[in-house]
Amino acid sequence: MAAQEVNQGLLSDLVAMGFSEARATMAILSSGNSGIEEAINWIVDHENELDTDEMPSDSVDIEIESPDPSQVSEQVKLKAQELRDHARRKREEEEKKVDHEREKERIRAGKELLGAKRVAEEHERKRFIDQRKAEKEEVKRARERIRQKLHQDKLERWGRLHPQKQSPISTDSGISRAPEIKIPVSQKAIPLSATSAEESMRECLRYLKIRHQDDDYRVKRAFQTLLTYVRNVIVSPGEEKFRRIRLNNPAFQERVGRFKEGIQFLELCGFEKSDNFLVLPSHKIDITRLNVATAALLAALTNPFFGLLSRYEWRKTSNIDVQSLLSV
After folding, report:
1. Which residues on adjacent β-strands are paired with residue 279?
2. I need a surface site. Which of 6, 111, 291, 307 has the fewest CB within 10 A?
């Protein structure tokens, strides 16, 4: 059988501690030459065995003197315990060091995560500010277009009422002066209510606002709901659910159906009554008309003077039914 090698350094340390060479050799061989702590543990665990001071039966490559039959002294036990305590403290220090490194890594990762979150929030804030700025610019441009359109409408109304007179309305404040309007057609030939689909929609919304001017909240909510219906069709004309409205739907009745002008406005947009629904057939979708409806609704929502220009005509023609607009 091949000779087992004994770690000379471990053997010398154990002998110096007072262990017999035979017992030290047995401890080293039995613990697999793994270390002095393991060898001492083995000695302590086998201190009461009778044959532990006998040399191992396997041949070794060192010279062994006669075994010392003395038992492990109290001093050796204390030394062994001291070594165990030292090893334990060393393990605890290493564990503390590992825990400290882990905590440092956790803090570093937390700081990186917090930094990334702040960067993302800053980007989101800038994006929101840019979006709001763009929306304000768009609203400003829309208001300017509406203001010019209202001014032009006023000129056209004056021309229809007084075809032989020059309009006294000023065209200053950045709006180019419109040419003198002379329409050689009698007032009866062109009804005051509307001359186009766009004007029909605007008049429909004006009547809704004037007839219910004491319920401004519900009027604005109706305008917003109508705008949602129209925009949904523009964005997704192929979606049937956006082109089919159930008339007895409680939400629809509360927001739009309670106003006959609301239903008439949808009919001006192309919706048709079918059984208990308002339906916009796919072959009758007119994006241009829907864009006109969107502009009219935006004017009604954003222009504080919307409906005021026609209040005089409204008082004169309060008995006119808006249904007549649908023939345009």
Report:
1. 244, 272
2. 111
Task: Read off the pTM.
Answer: 0.38
Edge-to-edge order in the sheet of strand 272-274: 244-246, 277-279, 272-274
Interior CA angle at 200 toward 197 and 203, to 5°? 155
Residue 31, H or E segment = none
DSSP class per residue in 74-127: HHHHHHHHHHHHHHHHHHHHHHHHHHHHHHHHHHHHHHHHHHHHHHHHHHHHHH
pLDDT for 192-242, tens place per residue? 333 477 888 888 898 888 888 888 899 999 999 999 999 999 999 988 889
At the topology level, CATH places domain 8-72 in Helicase, Ruva Protein; domain 3 (1.10.8)
Comparison of pLDDT for 66 and 44, the residue scoring more: 44
Query: What single letter denotes the amino acid at residue 138?
Result: E
| DSSP designation for 306 | T
Non-local (6+) Cβ contacts of 298 within 8 A are 142, 146, 227
Across 90-112, average pLDDT: 91
Residues 226 and 240: their CA atoms lie apart, in Å, by: 17
Long-range contacts made by residues 46-53, C-beta under 8 angstroms, separation at least 24?
A: 47/71, 47/72, 52/23, 52/26, 53/20, 53/22, 53/23
Written in H, E and C, the secondary structure of 151-202 is HHHHHHHHHHHCCCCCCCCCCCCCCCCCCCCCCCCCCCCCCCCCCCHHHHHH
**Cα-trace Rg, the chain:** 49
Q: Any idea which fold 192-327 has?
A: Methane Monooxygenase Hydroxylase; Chain G, domain 1 (1.20.58)
Residue 292, both tokens: 């006109």
Task: Report residue 33: phi and psi, to 5°.
Answer: 55, 30
DSSP 318: T
Distances (CA, A) of 56 to 2, 150, 223, 297: 13, 115, 103, 104
Task: Centre a 10 Å sphere on the Cβ of residue 302 and count the other Cβ atoms it contains.
Answer: 14
